[in-house]
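Good day; I would like, with your permission, to put a structural problem before you. What I wish to show you is a protein chain and, alongside it, a tokenised description of its three-dimensional fold. Thank you for your consideration; the sequence and its tokens are set out here:
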Amino acid sequence: MAEPDQYLLGYREAEQDRLERQAQELRGDSHALFTQVGLTAGQSVVEIGCGPRGCLDLLADIVGPEGRVVGVERGDDAVARARRFVSNNGIGNVRVELGDGRDTGLPSNEFDLVSTRLVLVNVPQPGELVAEAVRLAKPGGCVVYHEAVWPVHTYDPPLEAWDRLYEVVQAYADRNGIDLFIGRRLPRLLREHGLVDIQSNAITRVYPIDHGRRTLAPDFVENLGGRFVEQQLIDPDELEALTASLRRHVEDPDTFVISCLYVQAWGRKPS
């Protein structure tokens, strides 16, 4: 049996470019979250699954020169990009490590805050990443997530091509043990791993014609298309036709595009 996919959206260059744009697109929501949980100057933070940028610069700004930020990422290209971003921007309180979010190799009970954004929704066995995050947090420290509940978009008018593609995405995720609805069980997952004082936010957005996240659905399908065909979930000709129809739909200014449900949840490690 084939090894399950370890990251739903893959590591192709276009995906790394999208993740760099995402850092700016989600910056406001992430800043509000870090403010709400009480992150302050001088504290220590680790971001699990930081990708090519993640929240590294935002976290560095908040904790200041007396604080420190560690980014952990399993993709070689993403680590190289993240290190280049940190160096090019003269961010002196950040280091980026190559590592698996399930076993980072970092010391236990080390960080005031452990943060992960839009990683659990893309990986199998998400509880293993939560367990590692809890291990890394200091007693009294905070573990923070920003996650998603699919579908990645809802459209009006509806589109049969997207309905069919969404079925294929769901079948692929199920085959690879990936929970596209992880966001809705985040608070329970944090409780099950021993965190206390759990709180949460829910966020949805509308994406107008000029919004960078309006094309997420066709972008994701293009990321995954080769694997859909390899696993015989869809014929390549059908995939091409449906993806073209979906992209035309999101490029139509009269199409109303609603984001997925984003869930932010956090809890404190008992002292």
In short: The mean pLDDT is 94. The beta strands are 44-48, 68-73, 94-98, 111-117, 137-156, 196-203, 256-268. The chain is about 40% helix and 25% strand. Residues 13-148+178-206+256-268 form a domain with the Rossmann fold fold (CATH 3.40.50.150).
